[in-house]
């Protein structure tokens, strides 16, 4: 399957899951010449086709007739900083965005937070969307992580495959929802560094006999 076809499939799956609604959010894939990314202004997933996808180098040169997402610099910066990343999802998913509007990270309230590379999911400070400043802050928040929140904005998730980008997006939304539910009932107990380290070691051998 081509990178463009994978983007369309991933974008549609995110739409079915309610993580991308209407024209909000954007998805990209790394290709040898740079990246392929969904268009500026957004297009509902049911109307999006391969000709709508922008092909561009990571320095911002568009090589077809499409107009890239206004967040292209954020995607490009992450690809440059994380060579193993092949797919990027940026969305305004409800629970992720609700937590991002508190300008707080997702802390170690559950061991599954480890699935994003550390003991928390950082939240980048707010700056105007589509700006170089946001791109730089997102790259910093993603350091040694596969997801981050963007204050008063949304989330970003990385994947080595489209399937991984989808599953991580679903997991991040689930964890943010669970954390907000726990906060609505009281003060969540956070796991200690030792407890998270033990869970990380358990993940290393989980499923092996």
What is the count of distinct domains?
Answer: 1
The level of helicity is 25-40%
Overall average pLDDT:
95
Low-confidence sequence ranges:
none
Shape: globular
What's the count of strands?
Answer: 7
SSE-based structural type: alpha+beta
Distance between the termini: 34 Å
| Percent of sequence in beta strands | 5-15%
CATH topology: L-fuculose-1-phosphate Aldolase
What is the level-2 CATH architecture name? 3-Layer(aba) Sandwich
Listing every helix as H and every strand as E from the N terminus to the C terminus, the arrangement reads HEEEHEHEHEEHH
Radius of gyration: 17 Å
Could you characterize what this model shows?
The protein is an alpha+beta fold and 209 residues long. The chain has one domain: Class II aldolase/adducin N-terminal domain (L-fuculose-1-phosphate Aldolase), CATH 3.40.225. The chain contains six helices and seven strands; from the N terminus they run αβββαβαβαββαα. It has helices spanning 3-16, 72-81, 94-100, 132-141, 162-185, 193-205; strands at 26-31, 34-37, 54-56, 87-91, 123-124, 147-150, 154-159. A seven-stranded mixed β-sheet has the order 3-2-1-4-7-6-5, with helices on both faces. A hairpin with a 2-residue loop joins β1 (26-31) and β2. The protein is globular, with a radius of gyration of 17 Å. The N and C termini lie far apart (34 Å). The model has no long low-confidence stretch (mean pLDDT 95).
